[in-house]
Amino acid sequence: MLKYILKRFMIMLVTLWIIITLTFILMVNVPGSPFNSDQSSNETIKANLEAHYNLDAPYHIQYLNYLKSVATFDFGPSIKQPNQTVNDLLGRGFPISLELGLVTIAVAVISGIILGIIAALRHNGFIDYMAMGFAVLGISIPNFILATLLIQQLAVNLNLLPPATWSSPAHMVMPVLALATGPMAIIARLTRSTMLEVLTQDYIKMARAKGLSPWKIVFKHALRNALMPVVTIMGTLLAGILTGTFVIEQIFAIPGMGKYFVESINQRDYPVIMGTTVFYSAFLILMLFLVDIAYGILDPRIKFHKKGGE
Amino acid sequence: MKPGNELKTAHSPSHIPDDWFNWKEKDKDEAETVARPSLSYWQDAWRRLAKNKLAMLGLVFLVLLAIMAIFGPILSPYQVNTQNLPNQYQPPSAEHWFGTDSAGRDVFTRTWYGARISLFVGVMAALIDVTIGIIWGGISGYKGGRTDNIMMRIIEILYGLPYLLVVILLLVVLGPSLSTIIIALTVTGWVGMARIVRGQVLQIKNYEFVLASKSFGTKSARIIRKNLLPNSMGPIIVQMTLTVPSAIFAEAFLSFIGLGIQAPYASWGVMANDSLGAILSGNWWTLFFPAFFISFTMFAFNVLGDGLQDALDPKLRK
Asked: Which of these CATH numbers, 3.40.50.10420, 1.10.3720.10, 1.10.10.10, 2.60.34.10, describes A1-305?
């Protein structure tokens, strides 16, 4: 187990290093200097600015500086927003994005599993078809389109919910719904198919033969094994939800990290782009690592098999 | 006398008269006849796919969409980017079947142009993924040992990179255009395909017919090409069908955060993004048509992929 964790940890570090280096290489190769667009500045001011941001140093020095600043979690100031450091933006946006993300995951996992179980128990029945039809729709409709449809129907036409911003639970309903539907559909389909497989196993027949109640069979015996594949795709789902927050926060005008990220892309605010990318990646890679470890703990067979060697 | 009565009393077969039986000669030719026409793997897969109504619905929709993407713009008297401001926000009518948008452009024409772009991005991304994935996965799985170890480590590391973040990063630097979007989508997109191909190759390379091939002195490249790949086509095709919608989604997503296809091209994502403001004023059709086509195309590819998965899996054969 320890060896497995250590190996995953090493891979995590390498992945992290690659994304940090990649951001550096790409940003260095952006044509022109970030100060070119400032028409007011003359050559001396530009040179001074570049010296201030260390942009005139040779690449390897810049790279080392960059690594040092990333390691100390200092991403420097924003170029386009005066008196703001990247850390300010992250500090302000992250709690909001985290709240949105956590609520979304909770909604997606709980409702997805319940939907999957019901569909499996009513296999080939009306409820099964309804649930799976709903799931295919959920996978097919992109979150940003669902978001705009929700705004149009629930906020504009019916005037039920506030259309934007982030201040009360009512404000959360539409963004969470838009963001959670896709992952929920994936979880529901996965739970259903593994549940169907597990329900035909001998130990379920055994449990039935003992006279256990159907609910006890489902929750004590079947669900535990049926959830293993759900754990494996949690990493991918997390990545999807995280990138989903970029557009959802933009559409609903939620002042989270995703909104700053999209703004920085449109304004070509390079330090903010680099900082948020590295932060997002580090967060995601850490989550993937934790999911892997959780999987290793939950599934005792993993110890004897090499991961990735399916 | 009825035969039934006879049987009650007669316990020995010898009591049954011989003329009750029709003696049939053993027909050696007929014994080897195959009653039903033999089906190749692909014929069988097609037969099973055709039974799956949802998958066929998806297939028919995609064929129609491809036809409209090619001929749709020709059918329409309007140009894709001709602006006609006095004519803005016309609801769907006989002149403008899908209405007009904020700049008075014909949504019908733009929808089929968008189909061209979206399908092109999706299909190209899938094809490039397949090409790299097959080469990488094929070599990695077939060679095994050290080569496989190194190649798999690289895949594991790339797999951990957040896909859309890398795409965004590349597009910020390269600048969004049709070719850079396809490049960005495939830089890490091929990894999933490579894993699938490797898994298949690992399994198939131990079969007897591969050993037979090897004992004839066939070269590795030929074994991969002639023995291993044709037998792993099933999962590869399924993965391809599922790559197309995710690429279409990614392209629409990028348009939404300002990194999509730039004018004069119009993709569905760009159209949906442009009409965000319009829905608040009730001009629903500008959003509805691109949104409908993005969703239904993804739906069609997803159900087709699901159907293919069942149809191409010999274990599920009935």
From this structure: 1.10.3720.10
